[in-house]
């Protein structure tokens, strides 16, 4: 753990791990609490809490709500209830919602937890629902594999759902999650614009810090590759006089180049088969210069990971995004279309 990249830690790790260490110390467990890298994790926790002060945490919905179970020593339980999501959860997190229920007995918390138990039975996911995240990444995957022409009706219906659940400040991973992030927002808005939906890139103003830099969330301690990669992809779909997308393109391109030069390509949201190669290809061949069938072949052969996993409080898979069936269909479809094109070319040349 001492030498692992920071980007490969689970979400809220610096908050949760320090709470576990504090509890172990209270129980009298003999652990090496003074190791330098453990102190670094403690410093990261303090850094994050300073970025989102306790008074702000109780008045505005922030990402600290996702880790309430690890902040029990500072949470004012009755005050935190006013930041509850529509579905009764706290940022769609069963564990955060559970600790609030234990401290307050709030019925909406219980209703959400009861729903989770009935839905999943013998386990609980780290976050639920993730309906927007799963939908937009599935569409993007299907398009990049070149098999979207088989699913036009499904894609249209899914994008209608995403558009309906997009907020003025962006898109989150779930419909009842009140905190949008730049990663999901850029992915969703890029797809919506590609399919003719009226969207405004001015939403990106909500994802700038006090220094004018683009960020995923307020209070984050480090930036992920996926955040800036999808910001860059969205920026390439700009219309004339959309200054915010020009700024986004320059910022994200510079950030991605820096990551490649310094070999810092670990993403904080996922473990992907070939994220480095994806970024390199995107920087080398912008979207306006790409050829769909060539891009599909590259994605099929080199980039798509049927076993890719995603990072939250735990490591999980999204079978509607990464699966063997997509890849098999993409290969069959590519070969079939290639035969069709070759036949058409032969008939033209006769």
Secondary structure elements and pairings:
Blueprint: H1 13-26, H2 36-51, H3 54-57, H4 77-80, H5 94-104, H6 107-120, H7 131-144, H8 152-164, H9 182-194, H10 225-235, H11 243-261, E1 270-271, H12 275-284, H13 292-303, E2 309-311, E3 315-316, H14 324-349
Antiparallel strand pairs: 1-2, 2-3
What characteristics describe this protein?
mainly alpha, Glycosyltransferase, 3 strands, Terpenoid_cyclase/PrenylTrfase, 350 residues, 2 domains, metal-binding, Isoprenoid_synthase_dom_sf
What does this structure look like?
- One of its GO terms (molecular function) is terpene synthase activity.
- This is Terpene synthase N-terminal domain-containing protein.
- Keywords: Magnesium, Metal-binding.
- With 350 residues, this protein is an all-alpha fold.
- It has 2 domains: 6-120, Glycosyltransferase (Alpha/alpha barrel); 131-336, Glycosyltransferase.
- Helix content is 52%, strand content 2%.
- The chain is built from 14 helices and 3 strands.
- It has a 3-stranded antiparallel beta sheet, with no helix packed on it.
- A hairpin with a 3-residue loop joins β2 (309-311) and β3 (315-316).
- The longest helix is centred in the last third of the chain and has 26 residues, at 324-349.
- The chain is globular.
